[in-house]
Fold Homeobox domain-containing protein.
Amino acid sequence: MMVHTMHRESPDKGLDSGKYVRYTPEQVEALERVYTECPKPSSLRRQQLIRECPILSNIEPKQIKVWFQNRRCREKQRKEAARLQTVNRKLNAMNKLLMEENDRLQKQVSHLVYENGHMKHQIHTASGTTTDNSCESVVVASGQQHQQQNPNPQHLQRDANNPAGLHSIAEEALAEFLSKATGTAVDWVQMIGMKPGPDSIGIVAISRNCSGIAARACGLVSLEPMKVAEIVKDRPSWLRDCRSVDTLSVIPAGNGGTIELIYTQMYAPTTLAAARDFWTLRYTTCLEDGSYVVCERSLSAATGGPTGPPSSNFVRAEMRPSGFLIRPCDGGGSILHIVDHVDLDALSVPEVMRPLYESSKILAQKMTVAALRHVRQIAQETSGEVQYGGGRQPAVLRTFSQRLSRGFNDAVNGFVDDGWSPMGSDGAEDITLMINLSPGKFGGNSFLPSFGSGVLCAKASMLLQNVPPAVLVRFLREHRSEWADYGVDAYAAASLRASPFAVPCARAGGFPSNQVILPLAQTVEHEEFLEVVRLEGHAYSPEDMGLARDMYLLQLCSGVDEDVVGGCAQLVFAPIDESFADDAPLLPSGFRVIPLEPKSTPNGASVNRTLDLASALEGSTRQGGEADPNGCNFRSVLTIAFQFTFDNHTRDNVASMARQYVRNIVGSIQRVALAIAPRPGSSICPISAPTSPEALTLVRWISRSYRVHTGVDLFGSDSQTSGDTLLHQLWSHTDAILCCSMKTNASPVFTFANQTGLDMLETTLLALQDITLDNTLDEPGRKALCSEFPKIMQQGYAHLPAGVCASSMWRLVSYEQATVWKVLEDDESNHCLAFMFVNWSFV
């Protein structure tokens, strides 16, 4: 390789500055070795290179610098060219997909136009003539009766001993699946928020006016079709709700394909519904154009085929022809078409829960999009595009996520064959307790040292009103002090040590610790992330020495994007020790929030935000399921499950502690829901203002200081009003008013806020002191405050220009103006700074 570089020599060397220096292959090789180690060497490193390599002694340091600049430029151009080629290939494939989609839609339009004309003709004929069709009716009725007596004669020959019959079922399933994947067999409607593009997940659609619920997706993946088929057939690896897949029979088919008889068990998403199972035939084959197909459908008396295993603890659901069409893509990779079409027997669950089983949007997010995302994730991991820290392999981190989700699902469902059995209640039905005396099921390749007799699980479900699932889960993740008890966490972590921690008493708000979140990994679409949470411990008395050491949680958080339609939000965590081995035992606990379809109901509804879901199921008049007076009711189901270890002598104490702890958490979530639910246009009662003497005094100081500094009354004429009236006026003020400490040795934190201020920061009074001023104001806002700070201290107040700040959920908030003033105590000493954000709104 020969490289030419412009070289400007000094006059005494007699060389023309416009000529090129020609590097020898040996010189280029030496420079390339250094470039591999350090693409941007410092001046000292370049001089050292000249001293250590005699073959570079005739090259000036400045010229060496130019060579490295050119080399970096060529590398950047090469990477950009490769990126553009990849984008171009994706765009070409996406264009092909869109053209096919356009053709399908045109066919669908033509079909609808034909049906519309045919119906018009029938209406016109029926209105113009009256014909006696009694004879035809008799013939039709006779034919229908014959069909009912023998609905499908050829299906009677399809059994386990007749491979030809099973092959006939498989071919029918294949034809019907292809008509859904690329044809007009189902009326597909594009899902909101799923726009096609080179970097998007793909084209996602849901069914309309369809028997059962169905979803379809197609997208590009950089894997070969055979590899994609292998991935999607491993359903438990990408479908978190899949408990098990058992292949009971395999029959060879033509074109190197196979016919499999599959029994699949699914988890129930919440505690108040039975789990589902499927008995299906799965057909894998290769088409003439080189495409792979993996299609599947349920076997029943109507379709023929062998009878599936009995399902005493499951509700048998039906899978209509569904599957995967994997087509090779020009230039490498595949185009993946996915169709999911199921009937989950929604009538078998309580009415309040039926939207979970009747929503094509939820099906699309939980199954269809999940499969496509999983394949894309593995494709990017294979190509090296995804980098993870901590020295962990992507497959290991995926296994941790699967184990957390699976352990939580096991706790929620409590299957008998896993060893779970119910435990007696204390008279109330709000909390369900179950015990498992088979602790070996919970470890990785090792047992928990302190498992003793077994594991106890406390779980409950709630119906939330007007609380976005993503916002609630983000709040639970970022403000653990709102609901967690550090003593209970310490007891849960003690199961990892040889000497167990004493069973604590569950305390509301007993969390004397800070949490530090350390990210481990996140999926390509950022819809799920795995992290380690360090809980910093403190001991306040000798009996609390168990609280003095730091604890660690492995945590899985998903569904925190508010723009996702039909997405489930989840926060699951399990205690781990400092070693955090790949086979570390996990005992997961956590929360799951699943949205229900919005439902319009008559006016005059209940104003409760959160209800015990069990009470909503008792009668036919469910106040919890009714809408607010605005006519729109956004509901979601929250499921809570916490697991604890116990010994024989501590079982009753652990049960009492777990029951009270979950009740405390339910109460905390009810308070949190009141704080974070959207308020504009809502008639739901606001949080009551604090009425302590300190609050009344602070409000008086805030009002008096504002009047002294600005000469204007904050609430109009308030010189004769009482403290309670001032507090009410401040609490219900339309602008956000917040008080901030005036610390010189630490970052200022908020100490008080009115109702509007809490709404703006998306927090509660209890969690307000965790929010710092630096994290709330953006950089221009901080600079404006610093520049006006001397004026504030001298004059007493200042006006800040319009700007942007951030809530505790990291949502951007814009405001037209902010007024800052000193709050003075009765002795005229400085107490804090008060902020008033005028005309704020979420961006």
